[in-house]
Design goal:
eight-stranded parallel β-sheet, 17 strands, globular, nine-stranded mixed β-sheet, 37% helix, alpha/beta
Length: 479
């Protein structure tokens, strides 16, 4: 079985030009990886021969293109660059799609060791399991372990930037540990510091200034800092404004009198462009007008809203489009499903198509048009970059931007043959097809494997953290 060759395997009339197969040379790949890991920051890297989805409207899609990287930035994009630079580290990108790294606009990374623990929860049950259940038992070490493993799963999936909505900053050490988890992963991260759901702690937000001075003193680093809240507070928004920090928010009908709250924040001059709003479910037209007018960013959670039953259980993507807003895409958490930009793009794309068809069948003419593969890829890259406040640095393969770059194989059983690069990325690929990941020009994954991490040690640490938390919960239930 599986070895016989049918007489139909070779066409009688091949027609067209024959394909040109190629095979990776493991020895050359090993040499390339060694060079990437040991390369002097001044040494150029050329990614050559791939299909480039640049996400830059001026550059478009480039077949057989090259990306030149210098000093952690994209120096040039085009054809033949590999022949113009001597002594560069050359990454063979034939048989891959090359694109900017994905951005996850909103994830609670501290929960990483609890992944898959509760696959069927509604929102109230999710809060009971995390914020009010295991959250109080977290040691700083557990914040570190959860954040690190979430960041590594993100990198494995081609996500080069996460906005970590850390609402488990129970002590200064918990905050330190979460930040250091991002640092040790080597991911580009936004640490959004927040308190456990709806609680007030004596050290916070005052500790944010200390956190910034210790971990975020340089602007030339992978990590940035912001604040996070679940219920809007003018006092906290003033702190963010006075510290010149962005904020991320859980936004939707869980906030009583939301329209009045936003109106008051607007009147006080606090509702501005340095805000990113998650979910945005069941909001009034006036609330949407205020947020859209502020210049703030929004993001959608295609699987989270459905899994936990938030609002209509599907993101308000048509409302965002009507107001001219380009959302990011977020995974939210890994309690009930795995982190994957591919799954989120597919859920958004196909879920929206189904709802648009339903409206047409019901003669509900609201002007909604089907989302396209180009739309959802834009949301997962440039839309995410806007949510991170980094649109001028990431989200496209534009010269001058950071070299956060992902290669997706098109030679795997589920991605071959390459016919439509946009469709392959948004509707066919999965994390296992991610071949190579660079963050600021530094290799994090190569030829399908994370590199530079002691994964056995990390896995043992995460499992030990999980066991501690489950044991603490068990002892609490018995007591």
């Amino acid at each position: 079985m599986g070895t016989a060759i049918s007489r139909y395997a070779t066409p009688a009339d091949p027609g067209g030009a024959p394909g040109i197969p190629f095979a990776r040379d493991p020895r050359r790949d090993a040499e390339t990886l060694t060079a990437l890991l040991q390369a002097d920051p001044d040494r150029a890297v050329v990614i050559t021969g791939g299909t480039l989805l640049t996400q830059d409207p001026r550059l478009g899609e480039i077949e057989g293109g090259d990306v030149l990287v210098r000093d952690g930035q994209i120096a040039d994009v085009g054809h033949g660059l590999v022949h113009q630079v001597s002594d560069a580290v050359v990454v063979d990108a034939r048989g891959t799609i090359v694109l900017p790294g994905f951005v996850d606009s909103h994830v609670h990374a501290w929960e990483g060791q609890l992944r898959a623990a509760e696959p069927v929860l509604d929102f109230a049950e999710y809060l009971g399991f995390t914020a009010f259940g295991h959250g109080p038992n977290y040691r700083p070490h557990d914040n570190y372990a959860g954040t690190l493993i979430t960041a590594l799963v993100a990198l494995d999936a081609g996500i080069t930037t996460i906005i970590d909505n850390c609402h488990n900053s129970r002590t200064p050490d918990h905050s330190n540990a979460s930040v250091e988890g991002l640092m040790d992963a080597g991911i580009r991260g936004v640490h959004a510091s927040g308190t456990p759901f709806g609680t007030t702690l004596p050290h916070w937000p005052g500790d944010v200034e200390r956190l910034r001075s210790e971990y975020f003193a340089s602007e030339d680093q992978l990590l940035t800092l912001r604040l996070f809240d679940v219920f809007p507070s003018p006092d906290l928004w003033r702190v963010a404004r006075d510290l010149d920090l962005w904020m991320s928010h859980e936004m939707g009908a869980h906030i009583e009198g939301l329209e009045d709250v936003l109106t008051d924040l607007h009147r006080q001059g606090l509702l501005d462009e340095k805000h990113a709003f998650n979910h945005c479910y069941d909001m009034s037209e006036e609330s949407w007008r205020l947020i859209a007018g502020s210049g703030g960013a929004v993001n959608v959670c295609p699987r989270s809203d459905a899994a936990f039953g938030l609002g209509s259980s599907f993101p308000p993507i048509d409302t965002m489009r009507r107001f001219g807003m380009r959302p990011g895409i977020s995974s939210d958490n890994e309690i009930s499903y795995g982190l994957s930009p591919f799954a989120d793009m597919q859920a958004l794309l196909n879920g929206h198509r189904g709802r648009t068809f339903q409206k047409a069948a019901a003669s509900e003419q609201d002007g909604s048009e089907h989302l396209s593969p180009a739309d959802v890829l834009e949301y997962a890259t440039l839309g995410g970059a806007a949510n991170a406040g980094l649109e001028d640095q990431i989200g496209s393969l534009t010269p001058g931007k950071a070299a956060d770059i992902v290669l997706i194989r098109t030679t795997d059983i589920n991605t071959a043959p390459l016919t439509n690069a946009l469709a392959t990325v948004t509707a066919f690929a999965h994390s296992g097809n991610v071949d190579t990941v660079l963050v600021a020009g530094r290799v994090r994954k190569f030829r399908g494997k994370l590199v530079g991490y002691d994964m056995a040690r990390i896995t043992d640490m995460v499992e030990s953290s999980r066991d501690f938390l489950l044991g603490a919960a068990h002892r609490s239930s018995e007591g």
